Amino acid sequence: MAEELFTVRLMVDRSCNRVVFAESDGRFVDILMSFLTYPLATILRLTGNQVPFGSMNKLYESVASVDSRCLCSEACRSMLLDPIYLAAEECSRLPINIDEKHDLCCYICSDPDCDAEYLSFYANAQCSCGSSMAKKVRFSQSRGSTVKSEAGVFVVSSLGFMISDDLVVSQHSLVEICSLFARLGIEQGRNLEAMDVNLTADVITELLKRILVSDSPLTDVFLGEPKEKGKLMPLKNHSTHQIQARTSRTKPFSVKLMLNENGKKLVFAEADDEFVNLLVSYLTYPMGLVEKKLEGRSGIRCFDNLYRSIIESLASADCFKGVDLMNLLLNPELPRHLILEKNLLGFSLQRKEKFYICRTYDCDSDQVSTIGNAKCKGCKQISNRRLWAVNGSDGFMAQGRYMVRDDLVVKPLSSVMIVRDFLRQAHGGVQVMSVEIGQEEFAINVARSFQALALLRASVTSTQVLTDALMVGDNEIKSL
Ligand SMILES: [Zn+2]
Ligand SMILES: [Zn+2]
């Protein structure tokens, strides 16, 4: 990757050593906005899974270490830990792209005589014939333009932007500056000083890490307060906004919560693969999708600000290169193959993607096209075979019962583990509480909403996900 270095100008308040705002053309804004296109698993991978990100860290680790028998296939592990995202190609055109994504390739059955019509975006999927899908093939054309555009990726790069320390992005304007000064309590112009900093891939990665845990990522990265440096504290969830849960017609999932004797503390939850599939599928959600579902109030302030800046100021000022590019940030979609058939968050199941590959005997073309009846580049004939993408719609985790800890450590349930790790801790007494997620009556009473949305928000902001999302209200409590 050719890295093109560029400079961003910071306005620094020397009296308290903080960044008041950064000034940049569209390139820096493109980089910040690209963070919204990353699936949560990608954010965890890029930050080395070292920065607290709610309970997503433990969920990611659980998927990475779970026994293969607990997964529908090894390919499901890759789907969850390294999911495809639809903006990857746009991100590859960023001036600094910290996700050096391998080119989009896919795999077909390694048996040349197999006529199964499948293609997988992930290595190690098993073909219906029993062979491994290990033959690597490439897309004959990329989805969008591959020309490296001078004019930016998402926003018009020639425009000038102002970015506050907590990542509110706006165009330059006196009004914005005055309101920012008022918000920070700065007397105009006093102790302010301009400072130029260089952006590199390391700096951008550091920025992504700080966004997860801090309300002042620019100050942290560029001025580095020695007191705080290296210490990453999780953010408090300061969002009290209640989200209007949509009425769900899906059959509810049932989860059993094991509580300690006085019913105050969650010991662990027992759930089937459907519930666990819902949890692990969060790993595949782009951050922008999380923001969209939570209406820009995930509780991670900098991400919320980035997302809401699009709606509140950039969209109306026509800062984007196109509506489709803005929608990659504002209304990101999941690739079809990652959408669970039973989904509580109301993803529309668009038509399955179709792919085509040459089937002329002896042609060794390894090109896959999304267009049918196209001339093969190798043998120049028009003779296509249709392929369907292997997908995770039936679930990623194998059928069974699982133990889910409050911080989203997920393991297959075992009696030995229950006794060894939990009953002892609970000092004998345990209460069982059943909750149902996705039931209609809960949608009416938002305060008691046991919806997937509450679970999603708790997953990205809390280390007591089940307690925060499920243990409200007075549920039926059964004695063990
Ligand atoms: Zn096969
Ligand atoms: Zn051919």
TrEMBL record:
<protein>
    <recommendedName>
        <fullName>DUF674 domain-containing protein</fullName>
    </recommendedName>
</protein>
<dbReference type="InterPro" id="IPR007750">
    <property type="entry name" value="DUF674"/>
</dbReference>
<dbReference type="Pfam" id="PF05056">
    <property type="entry name" value="DUF674"/>
</dbReference>
